[in-house]
Amino acid sequence: MAIRTAASSGPSCWSFSSMARLLSTVTAFTALAAAPAHARAQAQQQHFSEQPRHGSTASADSAWAPTSVLSTIQLGGSLTRSSAVYSLEKRDSSHGGDSHRWTTAVRGAHQGGWVEATTGKGTSKRKIEMLPAAVDDDLTLYSLDLAPESDSGATSLAVTVSSVQSHQTVPLPAKLAQNAESVYLLWKGDLLAPIAGLPADQRRHVKEIKVRVKTPTPRIVSYETPEGFEAHQQTGSATLTFTSKPGVDFSTLSEQIAAVHFQQPEAVAAIRKLDRIVELSHWGNNLAIQDTIDLFNAGPELDGQFARIDFQKASMMRRQGITAIPSLSLSLPSSASNPYFYDLVGNVSTSHFRSSSSFSSNGILPSQQQKKRNSHTPAVLELKPRYPILGGWNYSFTIGYDLPLGEFVRTRAEKGSGKYLAAVPFLTPIKDVAIDAVRVEIRLPEGARWGFSSSAFYGLGSSQTDSSRPRVCARSDIHVHTPFPMSTVSYPAFVPSLFGKHHTVQEGGAVSWTYLDSTGRPTVVLTKEGCTDMHGGDVLIEYTLPFYVDWFQKPIACASVLASLFVAIALAKRVKTTIPS
């Protein structure tokens, strides 16, 4: 089985038009961070007021109420994708309520994962701003902004709430022999989850709920249907449909737990921990990325001992990917070069790298070859672990590659200001593979300027909000814009720089040391738990690196070391070590 990466939600290489939009966005963030202290405090207070409140699921009264809900749950791998389409209806004016907002709930969103709300279809599709309103046990309530549609005078509206969550299925049976022919997983869930947390009057307004559960194969071993629903599956179909019974009052109906036992066609891969180190080098014109990955087979555990000969027999019959993870395929940016792959033992030679230029162009007209070269075909890094990863086994390894700095770093518009804007890939998403914990360490060039001011955080929290809202950490000369909320963001400490009165890092703070460093590299550390294949955006970092620091700090540091060495040798030669006669 080869696990292939999903398309990143953010671009790996920037076009000049998108860069212009990003520059304008960060300029607005810079102006916000440069505001007076009382303004920053007011903005910070506004942010914390938007954080979820615990212990309450009472949603705000809204003029909108759902009449029907169509939910789709897609099972497979270590990720579960769900989308609920709400058919909203605007109630009469006698009811009152806010006509611009509507509140819904997502189960398990505070534990991580991806949540997004949209409306419309095709070219008219747009994202809806989601503000976390409250958290109670396993429910997270979000307030959705419906202002554009409500202002247009519409009385009906379709809203789609999509989510991607990890580890929603368990292997059943929990243990399997090495030569097992199939892997089976069990999913259990509440069919009323899309309307959980809604007030009783809105639940009473719902006339029908339909839940479609899609499995990877039509092989569904068994399923359980709650009392308030009816189940239906067409012959040969991989979709099981649960439909609410006519005349059901959802305001009084308790949880409706359904279960589906289905066949999984390949091993269940997951990543327990991913540590990424990104190093920006202006002198080397290079952006180096290194990932340390703890890969884990989350499928049924191996029952008995591992037999290499049985595994080789299964590989000849092309069945080794059912219970084991034999290989991994990563899609890297098209400009990736100098890849490497090693583990605790040493270098692993069972890998193959196909650069973007190595893909064959045979049978393509010359006019189409140029178009293909401009399409940024991703490079592929095919990895084969040192041993097959069976159920319950894990494999820790490290990969890395280089990228040209010019594709990910741009100079700000102010000429000679020394301000730069960098787009750092947060992670390389892998389709249908959950990542439990991610730590990204971004090492800026040595001498990057950091001013001291009270930090202000905007939109950085554990709850998912719409990606259009700014999530910025600002410290004077540095600004970090994250594509989604982070668990934590840490900054370096401050001491006087070698040049001028600007601040740089000190030993003991978030500082990294590499070759020919004299003061260390300022380092931003971001962590996030519960990541999915949708968390592949770019982290935008704006920093200041004065030209005199960039050009002269390393040469002066090296010259000082060499001069000190020459002086030490000269002084040593003047010391007499012989005993005078």
Automatic annotation (TrEMBL):
Q: What is its main location?
A: endoplasmic reticulum
InterPro entries xref list: Ribophorin_I
Query: What GO cellular component entries does it have?
Result: oligosaccharyltransferase complex
**Pathway participation:** Protein modification; protein glycosylation
Disordered: where is this region?
Answer: 42-62, 356-377
GO BP annotations, alphabetical order: protein N-linked glycosylation via asparagine
Which keywords describe this protein according to UniProt? Endoplasmic reticulum, Membrane, Signal, Transmembrane, Transmembrane helix
Where does it live in the cell?
Endoplasmic reticulum membrane
Recorded topology in the membrane = Single-pass type I membrane protein
Check the UniProt entry and state the signal peptide residues, or none: 1-28
Q: How does it assemble?
A: Component of the oligosaccharyltransferase (OST) complex.
Stated family: Belongs to the OST1 family.
Q: Which PANTHER family match?
A: DOLICHYL-DIPHOSPHOOLIGOSACCHARIDE--PROTEIN GLYCOSYLTRANSFERASE SUBUNIT 1, RIBOPHORIN I
Function, in words:
Subunit of the oligosaccharyl transferase (OST) complex that catalyzes the initial transfer of a defined glycan (Glc(3)Man(9)GlcNAc(2) in eukaryotes) from the lipid carrier dolichol-pyrophosphate to an asparagine residue within an Asn-X-Ser/Thr consensus motif in nascent polypeptide chains, the first step in protein N-glycosylation. N-glycosylation occurs cotranslationally and the complex associates with the Sec61 complex at the channel-forming translocon complex that mediates protein translocation across the endoplasmic reticulum (ER). All subunits are required for a maximal enzyme activity.
Name of this chain's protein: Dolichyl-diphosphooligosaccharide--protein glycosyltransferase subunit 1
What phylogenetic lineage does the species belong to?
A: Eukaryota, Fungi, Dikarya, Basidiomycota, Pucciniomycotina
